[in-house]
Amino acid sequence: MTQLGLQRTPARRIQVPRPTRPRGDGRVALFFIAPVLLGFAIFYLYPTIRGFWWSFTDYSLLADPEFVGIDNYVAVLGDSEFWNSMWVTLCYVVLNVGSQTLIALLLAALMHRLTRSVVLRTTLLLPWLVPNVTVGLVWLWLLDTNLGFVNRTLDTMGLDKIGFFTNPMLAIPTISFINTWAFVGYTALLFYAGMLQIPQDTYEAAAIDGAGELRTFFRITLPLLKPILALVLVVSLIGSFQIFDTVAVTTKGGPVNASRVIYYYIYQQAFTYFHMGYAATMAILLVLILGVLTFIQLRLLRASESQLA
Amino acid sequence: MRRNTALRIAGIATAGIVLAATAGCSTQGGDGGAVTLDYWLWDDAQLPAYQQCADDFTKANPDITIKISQYGWGEYWTNLATQIAAGSAPDVWVDQPSYYPQFVADKQIEDLQPYIDEDPSAVDFDAYVPGIADVYKIDDARYGLPKDWDTIGLVINKQDAADAGIDDATLQDLTWNPDDGGTFEQVIAKLTVDKSGKHGDEAGFDKNDVAVYGFLPEWADGSQGQNLWGNLAYSNGFTYSDVNPFGTSFHYDSPKLAETIDWIASLADKGYAPSFDTQSTLSRLEVLQSGTGAMTSMGSFNQLMFKDTASDYVFAPLPTGPEGRKSAINGLSDAMYAGGKHKDHAWEWIKYLASSDCQSVVGATGVIFPANADASQASVDARAKLGLDASVFLSYAQEPDGTFLIPITYHGAEMSQIVQDAIQSVALGTSDSQSALSDANAKVNALFE
């Protein structure tokens, strides 16, 4: 009993100064956070709450919103265009995130194991520095069927022209490829930074044990990179779901509805058809879907556990 | 204490910068006696002409300044809707027949009839091209004063026509029907040339290896087909709806339309036009100017694009169909924002824009055909000086029922997507025209239930 009591006292003593310190820090911290918090409240929280309210209304943007209960939700779930655009978006995400992650991993591993040239790293980042709309326009012109460089080259080689943006089967793969091209350097750099964190001695040990490059990659690099991999996957998945600009610049959702991704459909409903309430409903559903996906992904990858610890 | 003060100063300074930026980025109109009116338009080619009108107007009315903003067609309507939602819409904007009914339904544009009643001499309706003022009339209300009008014609590469041995008289009097395409299809076939130099009507023509397409169709043409299919279908006896404006029962399932769409799609099958999935993403006029197309249809508002290459192109009227020669006619207007703060001043400006004074200034540039008939003639003359023959666009008006009004409806934007998707699916070959258009028609009619 006394022993226990004695043990407790020092513990208490350590805790004594705490109440004063954190309080002071908290106030200062709040002060520093305030501008961001204010921005968050005005530009994120308030619009989200408003959007949530609009999802229960019939709102044309021009006249006042009118409460309609869950009518919008019922209509969205029965809207074949909504499900089509979810499917199109999913195809895009799988193609884009898949190719981007694989190529970026390969590039990062090459940079890590072969060369550490700064020039090379900077060059890889270049497409990422170009604004998305410019990227879209450049590829639109390069891939144009009549006047584009790529099709002209195919034509002079005696091959058939390819309607990259105008063939419904190719529109989404083309857009995925464009964005992979634009973002792969950035993703590779994130992976590369993650690889630099892996202690060099693990590689030395592997080399002494006679492991080849492939084995080292799968047994050491990949497992130790898992937290970064998980983070990058979650961020690119969410980013990829938000594909809008490239579609808006190149195909505008066409041909017919082959590349009408969910963000473009939401935009059309809100600003072309003036169905703000309906658009808000789809946005809320998208938030729910993305939340669930992120949760599952983090769970599957157990992202918080690093094998380095 | 000291640190807190420093922090506070830093905080205040940050807030100050943010506020200054906010104030600097927003625009403020003048107050007091002088009024600044915001005026929006989308065509950058027309901006200088209307700036001239604004300057002349301010000279006559020194207390009213006009601030013109120009946004591209792509952003124009979205920007306008968001500005209206934010309560800061322009006082006057250029309006278009497919968009204005939505603004009327949401009570965002002012009925101008009361202003006209109070000021009967303000507008001379007899001076306008007939029918063009009524586009913006709903019952006794008037939601805009006429600004300009346009029709559709054909533009043909002169050298290609000469190489194919087609004379000008043939081009100026083409015929068309949905069965064999008439002389229109014959000319298109002759204008098409494959890589080995064989024309589309010659034996041994390779439709899979075409160098110059005879015709460039427009497949992204909404629910109106203003640029081609609407005109051909109309000349084939098709009508869009029970009544126009403001029809509520539509006829997109008509076989007259289906056979028209089938004919246009057949051009690609024969190699006379690029197939839908290999067409350029650039505009048809750009493809035409690049030399890979020999002929296309175009609106009168685009003719000035050819001012530097006028001698290389021929302009011709649309072909005569089974029911005659028909062109869609469209007209823009100036609308007044119902929530504006200076409506009386805005009325003065709209009145001036609709007057022959302003319209002749615009007409003299040749950029568009003003609603005022005399100013229209001035525009035709201005184009003639540049070597551009604009008479084809006026030719329809000389025939009885030579023009038809493009459909003016509620739900215009949704209809546009539904019908365009159906027509594109025919062009892609993923569905047959009759069933695709019948489905689309059911969806369109459901919007009005």
Any key phrases for this structure?
heterodimer; A: 309 residues; mainly alpha; MetI-like fold; 2 strands; globular; disordered N terminus; B: 449 residues; alpha+beta; D-Maltodextrin-Binding Protein, domain 2; 2 domains; seven-stranded mixed beta sheet; three-stranded antiparallel beta sheet; 17 helices; signal (chain B); Bact_solute-bd_prot1 (chain B); transport (chain B); Sugar ABC transporter substrate-binding protein (chain B); SBP (chain B)
Describe this structure in words.
The complex is a heterodimer of chains A (309) and B (449). Chain A has one domain (71-301): MetI-like fold. Chain A has helices at 2-15, 20-54, 71-77, 80-113, 118-129, 132-142, 149-156, 171-196, 200-208, 213-224, 226-241, 245-250, 262-272, 276-301; strands at residues 57-58, 66-67. With 309 residues, chain A is mainly α. With 449 residues, chain B is of the alpha+beta class. Chain B folds into 2 domains: 35-148 and 331-385, Periplasmic binding protein-like II (D-Maltodextrin-Binding Protein, domain 2); 152-330 and 395-447, D-Maltodextrin-Binding Protein, domain 2 (3-Layer(aba) Sandwich), CATH 3.40.190.10. Helices cover 41% and strands 14% of the residues of chain B. Chain B has helices at 2-25, 47-60, 73-85, 100-105, 113-118, 158-163, 168-172, 182-191, 229-235, 255-269, 284-290, 343-353, 356-365, 373-385, 391-395, 412-428, 433-447, and strands at residues 35-41, 64-70, 92-95, 137-138, 141-142, 145-150, 152-157, 193-194, 210-212, 295-299, 313-317, 327-336, 369-370, 403-405. In chain B, strands 1, 2, 3, 6, 12, 13 and 14 form a 7-stranded mixed beta sheet that branches. A 3-stranded antiparallel beta sheet of chain B has the order 10-7-11. Chain B has a two-stranded antiparallel ribbon with strand order 4-5. Mean pLDDT of chain B is 88; it is low at 22-31. The chains are: A mainly alpha (309), B alpha+beta (449). The A-B interface holds A 28, 31, 34-35, 60-63, 140, 144-147, 160-163, 165-168, 250, 254-257, 268, 271-274 and B 7, 11, 14-15, 77-78, 81-82, 84-85, 102-103, 106-108, 208, 220, 274-282, 286-287, 290, 292, 413-414, 417, 421, 424-425, 428, 430.
